[in-house]
Amino acid sequence: MPVSRRIDAVLFLVALVWGSSYLAAKTATGALPVTVVLFARYAISALACGALVASRRRRRDGWTRAEVRAGSLLGVTQAAVLALETYGVAHTSAGNAGLIISLTIVLTPALDRTASSRRLPGTFFLAAGLCVLAVGLLTAGSGLHALRLGDALVLAAAVVRAGHVALTGRLAARHRMDPLRLTSVQMVVGSALFLVPALTHLPGLTHSSAITWAQLVYLALFCSVFAFLAQTWAVQRTSASRASLLLGTEPIWAVAIGISLGGERLTVWAALGAVLMIAGTYWGQAIERTHRATTAKTVDELRSRPAPTPTGV
Length: 313
Hints:
Helix content is 78%, strand content 0%. By secondary structure, the protein is an all-alpha fold. The longest helix has 37 residues, at 268-304. It starts with a helix and ends in a 9-residue tail after the last helix.
């Protein structure tokens, strides 16, 4: 399988995992306070990342300042995204949260300056607009009629997530960093940020049911450790705009999981929205790939041109 296809497959898998995270977070926040869910998710993730780092004994290179600084900054933005998402899903449906967050695919290209210095073609934004239309149909199909508190929080999460993805791509282009160590720093930062707010409610965590613990472990190991590692790995090998488009299939998985596990109904409008989302994602992906290849070819041609020979007077 070509490298580009492997990257696409990983990003699609991340979208699938994140699509399932809303139902898990919705259920977990029904049993525990939001701050406890966030702290447990980060703490379990930090322990898992620490175990992975410790298992790589053969690596002689140590932590770099760039990894610590970038990880600390990305840890704050990442924590903001998860806080807004988790508080949002606690006050709205899991389906609505998964649909609204997909607006990141429109916001990220406006912030992404790592792919090239040239502006993306207008057809890319037409594809993104098609995705926005798809979100509208999906949202209407799942019963979203007015912007509620939870919806507004998830919308804010989409804005912050777009900045986080673009910032990840920018830092990855500036410094060569190990994805595991970078993710580990982010998990530690998130654990520290949510420890104090969750402190008074932590005793209730020990009395949680096995189902709640299973949801927390799933959110930590799959939706955090695997997803963040895979996203960082992929963004280092592609553009943030392309990654955002592929991750934009997340609402499709959120709807599918909501129907199969959450008992939600798929209306005609929601089905049409799902088709348009897939079409818009693939269309925008093809446009961005062609644009990036054309830009790289143009840059190579300019660099290969011989310098003009000065002429005498």
